Amino acid sequence: MRRRVLVVDDDSTVSEVVVDYLRRAGFDAESTTDGEQALAVAAVRPPDLTVLDLMLPDMDGIEVCRRLRVARPMPVIMLTALGEESDRVAGFEHGADDYVTKPFSARELVLRIESVLRRVTASPATSTLGDGHLHAGAIEVDVQARRALRSGRELMLTAREFDLLAFLMAHPDRPFSREELMERVWGWTFGDRSTVTVHIRRLREKVEDDPGQPALLTTVWGIGYRLAADE
Fold this sequence. Notes:
Blueprint: E1 4-8, H1 12-24, E2 28-32, H2 35-44, E3 49-53, H3 61-71, E4 76-80, H4 85-93, E5 98-101, H5 106-121, E6 133-136, E7 139-142, E8 147-150, E9 153-154, H6 159-170, E10 176-177, H7 178-186, H8 194-207, E11 217-220, E12 224-227
Parallel strand pairs: 1-2, 1-3, 3-4, 4-5
Antiparallel strand pairs: 6-7, 7-8, 8-9, 10-12, 11-12
Helix pairs in contact: 1-5, 2-3, 4-8, 6-7, 6-8
């Protein structure tokens, strides 16, 4: 079955190029130019993934993302001309699965879409972990149920945050570069390395007693990050 992709962008030229490329890549793609229309289309013909511009004429992409995910959980790729880290953080906080900055290559966007859809089906990080339970200090992860607990209380993690945490917990005390984490956790061989930095920061806010002085998710200077097994 052909995967459905909804493209939401008020720039008709961008939408036409992306939709055409997606169709040639084997997707069932359509586009809308504003948030209200996107929500209406998604309610009638739910997409498998939405490509969503952050700046829309009626409501911003973050609000559209929030409403889409309340109605029906689905992966979302943010598409925007803004490249500041604060914009990426805002998108990720509201459930975006990836972030592509304009100008972009239509081919790269299709590769990102395929990567996200593969991860939804079977995450590279967790598909090799079986049905096990992982523990690190007060943190417990149930891989099969995709649940993470801190001192018995469930953590509200995005899919990408869960995959990153589970992977690091499965490899305690081993440092990984951002490039390694991108490839081994999310199956990417390309992309913005700051995506890893943003997600580490978000995870620290949820699992550390003091995110400013992390004891569990530590930085290995000159290399990347590791999960401290003795915490």
